[in-house]
Each structure stands twice: as C-alpha cells, then as structure tokens.
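Entry:
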Amino acid sequence: MSVLYRWLTRLLRRAAPALARPGSKLHAGLAGRTDAHDTLAAWGRTARDPARPLFWFHAPSVGEGLQAQAVIDALRVARPDVQIAFTHFSPSASALAERIGADVAAYLPWDLPETLEPVLDGLRPSAIVFTKTEVWPVLTRSAAARSIPVALIGGSVPDGSSRAVWPTRAFLRSTWGRLSLACANSAEDAVRLIDLGVGLGVARVTGDPGIDSAARRAGAADPSAPYLAPFRAVPTATVVAGSTWPSDEAVLVPALGATRAAVAGLRVVLAPHEPSEERVRALLEALAADGWRATTLGAVRRAGSLGDHDAVVVDSVGQLAHLYTIGDVAFVGGGFRDEGLHSVLEPAAAGIPIVIGPRHWNARAAGDLVRTGGAKIALNDVEMGRAFAGWLADGEARAAAGAGAWGYIDGHRGAAARTADLLKALIE
C-alpha cells in the first residue's frame, strides 16, 4: 500500500501543472508546493539554531491554523527559546501563515522521501506536530526513522470522518501508531483515535485549543478599528453571517428578508467563506434584488461610514472574528452543504446566540451549544427567520443565549496551555 501511495503521489506531482485552472484555489495550492521543500531546507541550513529546540507545526487550513497558533503562543511561554516552522496545505491559510509568527513558513512539501528528506536534514526538528486530523504517512515514517517524536494536537474524529472508514482507515493505521502524543479535544475523540491505531498511552484529553484562540481574538477586537467603528456609531439590530457558501445563502437571504419585515432597522453583515470578486458581486446583486441597500466592507472602511446601507458584504479575510462583536445574532455557514459546518467558536466567544444549518456532524462545539441554548438549528429559511426574529425581538432571551454561548467558551479555556506543556515534556 505504501509503495502504491508513493507512486500515486509522484504521478500527481508530475501532473499537477496541467490539473488546475490558473487563478483557482487548487492552482495556487499546487504552485505553492512546487518549491516549499527548498524554502524550508534553505532556512534550516542558514537560520536553524541547533542550540534551540524546533517544533514543526502543520495545519491544513485556517481553522486548524488558529488551533496551532494558540498552542504555539502557549509553547513560547513554556519554552521562550523555541523555534517554530509552520506549514499549511490550503491557500486560504497563506495569510495566517504570515501572521502566525513562525521562524519559517511554507506550504507542506509533497509527501515523498525526495522532498521531505532534505527538509528534515535542514530543519532537524525536535518534534513534528500535526493539527486536528491530518497526518501524513511518509513524513511520519521518515520522522520515526530519525527518532523524531510526532504529535497530534486538537485531535478530533467526527462522525462520518473519512479517516474512520475503509480504505483510509486501513492505510493510515500504521501512521497513527507512530504518534508519540495525541492530544484529543474530548474523551470521545481520544477513544476514536485509539480505535484508529493511536497507542493507549499516547492519547491524552486536553480540550480544543481553538477555544483559546477564539477567546483571544474576540477580546482583541478594537471598537475604534475602521472596519468596526462605523457599525458602533449607528447601533441597530444586526445579524452577522460568517463563512457562508451559496447553499447557505439560498436559505439565508430569504430568511433575512422575512426577519426584516418583523424587526425594524435590521442590518446584515455577510462574510462569504471565499470572498472572491465574483462571489462578492453575486452577493451584492442578490441582496439588492431582495431590497437591501448593499455595499462592501472595503467601501465602508474607506468612507468611514455606513451611509444609508443596511447590508454589508465582507470582501476581505481576517476580520470575521472581530465583526461578530458588533452583531446581536450570528449565522455560521456550512450547515447546508455536505462538507459540514464552519467554526461556531468565534461568535460564541463574542457572546452572541448562533443559528446553524442541519449538517453540523463535524462540529462537536455546535452540538454542545445547541444543548446549552447558545445555538439553534434551522432546517429551512422559515425556521431561520423565526430564530433571528425571536432573539432580536426578545432582549432577555437573546442575552441569556449569548451568555450561554460565552459560558461554553469560558468553561473550556486552557487547552492550549495543557497541550503546550505536553509538547514541552515530549522533547525534555
């Protein structure tokens, strides 16, 4: 199986230039991996301090990257002398890679001996740390051959995970078995990791470091920031919809229209998951067709005012966690598509109630928030509109739901520090 995997990976690497449309997300990711191994190896040869420990963190995309960042920050407190290498898989994490404060950052090299061996020679990592669910077999095997400990942080195995079914389950079993440490978000995740092949003494329940990250980012929101101040200058009932896809928006836009009929002065801030020019333009047109006076966040920032606009489409990335702090109610996208829900932690950390779609199998926090009253599930636009209008019309119920959402965050903080302590012990 491992021989076939390497053969298929080499084939994909050779065919990659012809596989993706120029300008697409796939094209950007493939292009970024072209010389990632050279970038990492060169830094290792020139800037690696052998007297200091180096942790190589890998996170596939933004959500996992934020989990990793919380642990990196805590690790730097525990070991101020640490050096950090950071890799990612998705182009959406490129901006985060620049902000994470790593000593060197790049796309993850192709999972092949010929690309990874020079990187390991250059970086000489004290440990390699994967985030959430993504473990790479060749990198893990090469690390084990060099006696480099490999860890997993923020470990989660949701219902329906492809890693828990054949053939992925069988193929990755030996890879899971090579982990020296597996930090799980919950006891259930720890059991599932062990079932996948993680050693009994290796799995540890530490909690979700993404909760620490969400709490920190919500607390860092600056009310005077040019993308927040215009909203605070004209307070009114506001729905912030984050990380939406077209399948979400097909339900969301009618629901917002119904809510506007019941709630005077309603305002909406809508942040598509991928704010390309095409997506932003389509949303502006859809909102305008439904009677909204729509503009972009960039235009609001430049003008320093909302003017007479009551709908704002976010046309950049990096502000969503802060934008939730100007909302009264949140909608989190992904729940109307098969891939599952995006993170509910940011609006919960902002202390506002949350509406989600039915497909939240991949997000344990969403289910917990529903059970504690901080979130509601809407199966269609009618239920969504009722949820929005109900909370916006009843300040007491809204405050109680928001307090429940924040209580969930506050009660689960500390995972990043616990995880950092275990990583520190792993190399000491």
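The mean pLDDT is 95.
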